[in-house]
Specification:
Mean pLDDT: 83
Number of helices: 6
Structural class: alpha/beta
Shape: globular
Distance between the termini: 28 Å
Largest sheet: 6 strands, parallel
Order of helices and strands: EHEHEHEHEHEH
Number of strands: 6
Strand content: 15-25%
Length: about 170
């Protein structure tokens, strides 16, 4: 079954509530909340995304799919737990080691939230295999594919370095 998780990253503040209603009517399965800290990736969306997530929880029953592109994973998980997201995704590369990855997976699960891991495109395939071997079999791994998602927003990823001299994985 295909499910759609719609990113609200580019929603304009003055039209946010209407946009959220329109997305619900259009049949989105999740609101995708892109939480960036300005450190792990260039852009800082923490306050805007938290405000949007709170608004969505007040007006909709569509679940939240929260994706952390942050250095402080634990602090951000704690901040979003009260909003009862269905999914929390964090970046493998933001963790110090495999033990920390497993600790966050377990913490998310203990709060009845589905954990997922996201992997940057430059992560070595052997590391990805090792990650897969060390996480629960039913857990998702999100691999970022250049050009598949970000061509419309974050720097034309497929050609970013060539066309704009901008790193293609900066959010």
């Amino acid at each position: 079954m295909l499910e759609i998780s719609t990113s609200i990253l580019t929603v304009e503040e003055e039209n946010a509530t209407k946009t959220f209603y329109d997305l619900e009517v259009a049949g989105t399965n999740y609101y995708h909340i892109d939480v960036m800290d300005g450190k792990f990736v260039e852009k800082d969306t923490r306050e805007m995304m938290y405000e949007y997530a709170n608004t969505i929880k007040q007006i909709s029953n569509i679940p939240l799919d929260v994706h952390f592109m942050v250095e402080d994973i634990k602090g951000n998980i704690d901040r979003y737990i009260p909003l009862s997201p269905s999914i929390i995704t964090f970046h493998y590369e933001a963790c110090k080691n495999k033990e920390e990855v497993i600790k966050y997976i377990n913490y998310v699960r203990e709060n009845n939230i589905k954990p997922a891991i996201s992997i940057k495109p430059n992560t070595n395939i052997d590391e990805i295999k090792e990650i897969r071997e060390n996480i629960p079999a039913d857990m998702d791994i999100e691999c970022f594919v250049h050009g598949a998602m970000c061509i419309s927003y974050s720097g034309r990823c497929l050609m970013s370095n060539y066309l704009t001299n901008r790193d293609s994985n900066m959010g």
